[in-house]
Amino acid sequence: MPTVLIIDDNAAVAVALDVLFSLHDIEALRAASPDAGLAMLEQHSVDLVIQDMNFTADTTSGEEGTALFKAIRERHPDLPVILLTAWTHLNAAVDLIKAGAADYLAKPWDDHKLIATVNNLIELGQAKRALQQRVQGELRQRRELERGHDLRGMVFQDPATERVIHLACQVARADVPVLISGPNGTGKERIAEIIQANSSVRNGPFVVLNCGAIPSELIEAELFGADAGAYTGASKAREGKFEAADGGTLFLDEIGNLPLAGQMKLLRVLETGRFERLGSNRERQVKVRVVSATNADLQAMIRAGTFREDLFYRLNVIELRLPPLAARPMDILPLAMNFLGEGKQLHADAQAALLAHQWPGNVRELKNVMMRAGLLASGDVIKVADLGLPAASNGIGGFGGGAAVDDNIREPDRDAISLALSRAGGVVAQAAAELGLSRQALYRRMERLGIVRP
User: Fold this and answer.
1) Which of 189, 231, 238, 190 is nearest to 212 (CA)?
2) Are 401 and 364 in contact (CB under 8 A)?
3) Which of 116, 111, 37 is nearest to 76 (CA)?
4) What is the pLDDT of residues 258-288, one digit of tens each?
5) Can you tell me the distance from the alpha carbon of 96 to that of 67, in angstroms, rounded to the nearest whole number?
6) Lesser CB count within 10 Å: N end or C end of the chain?
7) What is the 3-state secondary structure (H, E, C) of 1-67?
8) Is the dihedral of CA 333, 337, 343, 346 positive or negative?
9) In the record, what terms sit under GO molecular function (predicted)?
10) What is the tens place of the pLDDT at every residue in 124-137?
11) CA 131/CA 78 separation, integer angstroms
């Protein structure tokens, strides 16, 4: 059951509120003075405070209420506070709203509006606390992950990326093949490095082969090596990637580009650890952890007959799916700042433009954009124009023009505000949400336009 603290020296007011809240399954605590109220906040878990503005019989300035509000805000900055005020104290209440008070209610109050406001603020506070707990939990898990594992300097903040990294560290201890799937430029090689760095062969070599960058007729020689004369131009014997990776990890990028003949040999190595160099009959034995990566649909390639099904299942003992950058937006700004380097800052509009862009080239595209912006920007603050993003990616409301985004964009007029307040039954929080404004911003407009809540 939610709990509301009522701080009011008028017993009749406190009792009336207590009875009203009890009818709506809300527990009420009562305090007759600011000091008693502050003491109760230290002793009880409270979801919301309703406080009067005056506590001395001959005082009508609202100074006591202002001092109480400031004391509550200092000790409990996230606790919502509703101000009870007479119309003569409206200006003081509005000033406190600007300072962070949740709402104000004029005496005598409307029971329906009060309950609606209280329920809205309690639900908002509960949701905020749940979010804070989740964020703190994620931060704690990230710190534990960073303390307990070598993450190879990977920059991340999005929970989706953290899940992939956590699984990578978990499977690193098992000596089984791992397949990393995801679009080009998402950081699959960095995930492979993390697997190597946290495995039992962390001190062994980490050898990389991009299967898509080698001509199909040379891919077998690259993987397994070749004796002299094995093919035109092979004047001397050469070591293949499997031999180079013996006692360590071999990362095969773009595994879908491996020709069928090479796939058959790779399957045998994975099963037995044995292979022959191209042009040789002598069998060699290696112990290599194989991590592969692809941006292709290997299942579709199996159906098309261009990828062996048995090799797929051998490689795919564990699959890590790395999402595209657009699907992990919390990584964008930390990565951007990392690529930008020290001494440079991102303008708020540039940050918004980066978040609005879809990043078809993923992390690789972001890195190129930030390196270019850092070189070409005229000052230390990177603006939207410095990013060189397509106009459609410059965000909503004209980020491309470099204008600051503030409360005045799509300014609601007097009629729109009055209509929103009417539809919300006078509950400012609901009206503000409908208008796309904060409560404080809506109160400023109401004061400027002389609008009184219905």
Assistant:
1) 189
2) no
3) 37
4) 888 889 888 988 888 888 888 788 889 999 9
5) 10
6) N
7) CCEEEEECCCHHHHHHHHHHHHCCCCEEEEECCHHHHHHHHHHCCCCEEEEECCCCCCCCCCHHHHH
8) negative
9) ATP binding; sequence-specific DNA binding
10) 888 888 877 877 87
11) 13
- Contact yes or no for 321/313 (Cβ under 8 A): no
Structure tokens at 249: 């990890």
Do residues 289 and 175 touch, judged by C-beta distance below 8 A?
yes
Residue 225 vs residues 31, 213, 249, 270, 280: alpha-carbon distances, Å: 84, 17, 17, 16, 10
| Per-residue tokens: 219 | 């891919």
Residue type at position 69: F
**What's the gap between Cα 291 and its chain centre?**
28
Q: How confident is the model at residue 89 (pLDDT cuts 50, 70, 90)?
A: low
In Å, what is the CA distance from 327 to each residue of 49, 266, 331, 355? 39, 33, 9, 11
pLDDT of 182 over the 50 cut: yes
pLDDT for residue 60: 63
Q: How many residues does the chain have?
A: 454
Q: pTM surpassing 0.85?
A: no
Residue 413 has pLDDT above 90, yes or no: no
* Residues in Cβ contact with 398 at an 8 Å cutoff, skipping those fewer than 6 apart: none
State in Å, rounded, how far the first CA of the chain is from the last one. 30
Do 212 and 253 contact (CB within 8 A), yes or no?
yes
> Tens digit of pLDDT for each residue in 434-452?
777 777 778 878 877 878 7
pLDDT, the chain, mean: 85
> How far apart (Å, rounded) are the C-alpha atoms in residues 446 and 454?
12
Residue with tokens 């509005």: 94
Please give the full DSSP string across 403-453, using - where no structure is assigned. PPP-TTTT---HHHHHHHHHHTTT-HHHHHHHHT--HHHHHHHHHHHT---
